[in-house]
Amino acid sequence: YHALVDQLGAQGTTFVLVLCCFIGGLSAGALASPRVFGALERWTGERGLRNYGRIEIVIPVTVIGFYTLTRAPVESILGPFPWTETSIEGIIFFRPTGLSTLFELGLAVVAVGLPAFLMGTTFPYLCGLFPDQPGVPSRLYAANTLGASLAVIGTEFFGITRFGWLGCLLIATFGNLLLGLYF
User: Fold this and answer.
1) In this structure, what DSSP letter does residue 45 have?
2) What CA–CA distance (Å, rounded) separates 114 from 55?
3) Distances (CA, A) of 130 to 55, 70, 135
4) Closest CA to 29 of 68, 62, 2, 76
5) In sequence order, which ranges of 45-159 are alpha helices (DSSP H)?
6) CA dist., res. 77 & res. 52, Å (int)
7) What pLDDT was estimated at residue 111?
């Protein structure tokens, strides 16, 4: 959210966009999990936590890659002046063209949605790795949800004031990378 405020503004719409892309990405990833991990298992010839770790490594790579892409000036892609002159009550200002707004929104959707999609693939896969342990899904879901909640609270009330939002993003990205490398 904090990264996209720079691009889209600090408004409720930006929050809703991020929330919907994140939740939608998680759900789409959960639905696609059997196909994603099936393809990964065929490609690697393995089934297990190593494949989980591979996806956990790809997540921070996509986060950094798309974050970098969203920082690219729209002008470099859409031309030197992607704004149109507008006048309201005699005051002239420039607003983004429809194409540049659509482009920025599309980047935001992909930048949040793709990592969330990859995150969504992991829970069903991990549950499928331990079919003989019926308590795994609930314990895994509880740990994941509690961890995410504590991370959000810690970031908002401690991390951003100490490290800034970019520092928090880098810490989370590095942590995710270490998790993937562990597995």
Assistant:
1) S
2) 12
3) 18, 38, 9
4) 62
5) 49-71, 74-78, 98-129, 136-154
6) 35
7) 85
Phi-psi region at 90: left, alpha or beta (left = phi > 0; alpha = psi -120 to 50): left
Dihedral sign (CA 154, 155, 161, 162): positive
**Can you tell me whether residue 9 is helix, strand or coil?**
coil
With a CB cutoff of 8 Å and minimum separation 6, the contacts of 19 are none
The pair of three-digit structure tokens given for residue 176, joined into one six-digit string: 């995710």
Task: Tell me the pLDDT tens digit for each residue of 76-128.
Answer: 666 666 667 788 888 887 777 777 778 778 888 888 899 999 999 999 999 99
What burial letters (b/e) apply to 88-127, b meaning 16+ CB within 10 Å? Answer: eeeeeeeeebeebeebbeebbbbbbbbbbbbbbbbbbbbb
Q: What's the rounded Cα separation, in Å, for the pair 40 and 29?
A: 14
pLDDT digits (tens, 9 = 90+) for 136-150: 899 999 998 999 899
In whole angstroms, give the CA distance from residue 138 to residue 33.
18
φ, ψ of residue 97 to 5 degrees: the values are -70, 160
Helix axes 12-44, 98-129, angle to 10 degrees: 50
Query: Residue 134 and residue 143: Cα distance in Å, rounded?
Result: 15
